[in-house]
Amino acid sequence: MNFGVEQEEPEPAQIKEELEETKPPQIKEEQEEPEPLQIKEEQEEQEPLQIKNEQEEPQPLQNEEKWEGPEPSQIKEPFACKECTKSFSKLSYLKSHMRTHTEEKPFSCKECEKSFSNICNLKTHMRTHTGEKPFSCKECDKSFNLISSLKKHMRTHTGEKPFSCKDCDKSFSQISHLYSHMRTHTGEKPFSCKECDKRFRQINNLKRHMRIHTGEKPFFCQECNKSFRQTFDLKIHMRTHTGEKPFSCKECDSSFNQVSSLKTHMRTHTGERPFSCKECNKGFSQISHLKAHMSTHSGVKPFSCKRCDKGFSRIYHLKRHMRTHTEETPFSCTGCEKNYTKLRSLKTHMRSHAGENPQCSAPTFTVKNKVDVNISHVESFPQSGFLLFVGSLQVPMLDSSSPVLIAELMT
């Protein structure tokens, strides 16, 4: 790029000398960093800083003060880009901007192979190697390697959400979060998987999805060494060690380690069955139950017995079949101590005791090495079924879909 001699002349007289060191006013604060991930747990695993090409104008490191100069409309910017409509107050800014068109990156990191279009970005990048975090929060102990990161963090204390959606009433603390949200209105999914046809609204969702193809599970449990694709999955898993069940049912005493489990449980109280079969219109409380039911229409039997040639449409059918080989009888009547391989057989047995043996009014059957389960009759038993109690969880046995839930609870 050939810059004319007149461009080397000093700034107009009305522009104060200190403007030489200030950030060009049109640069948005959010441009200093890439779009942050919305999943907080995974923010720390991402590359600390990726400088986008859109960063036309670097902010000098020594200037972290608030802009106190004249309004942008009062500033004359004599250095114009011939490739686009942008103009700049300093020749150095224009030269730096031109690299966004030429893709030149003359500043290289000596620690790694990354290169940058301006020295400011290189200096910022070097903090990822040195660990330097010079910007500290006065409200808590957190520190940051960028002033913009600190400013964004401060909104978690102030509750400020300055970026509002024009299509709905939602507001956001970061402009990148607003951009991401806008895709829910436009339907845009710019990030596509090269392995399959799936597309995503956010780059971090694509990265997380790619682990399905690569098999990568970078998050390990320190208690049992299990690994997970997401930190969210690891956090839920940790509750199996701590016994934490933070989600409680308001209708009964049941509590759960996942909110999804609570939502599923609530359908036992409401009777809601939001998942319907398109073939026969049957409704189910869980999507897994619907998927299992669909095999009755397709005839697919994906679960095979390794001891014989029998195939089954559902995993719990296979497990129940395996008892014919192992001779396991996990369902016991405490009234007469008879044992059965199937829950159905125990139900039939209980009818034979109805009115004859009061001890069998609420027998217990035990699933070996699993849990103790109590069965008690409801008022209109056997026509309306009975209730299955797994710990404090009540499962109504009201239709043919209920055994699916029972089997999942006991496997």
TrEMBL record:
Residues 48-62 have a biased composition (Low complexity). GO terms for cellular component: nucleus. Residues 79-106, 107-134, 135-162, 163-190, 191-218, 219-246, 247-274, 275-302, 303-330, 331-358 form the C2H2-type domain. Keywords: Metal-binding, Nucleus, Repeat, Zinc, Zinc-finger. Residues 1-73 are annotated as: Disordered. Residues 14-29 have a biased composition (Basic and acidic residues). GO terms for molecular function: zinc ion binding. One of its GO terms (biological process) is negative regulation of transcription by RNA polymerase II. Residues 1-11 have a biased composition (Acidic residues). Its main location: nucleus. It is found in: Nucleus. This is C2H2-type domain-containing protein.
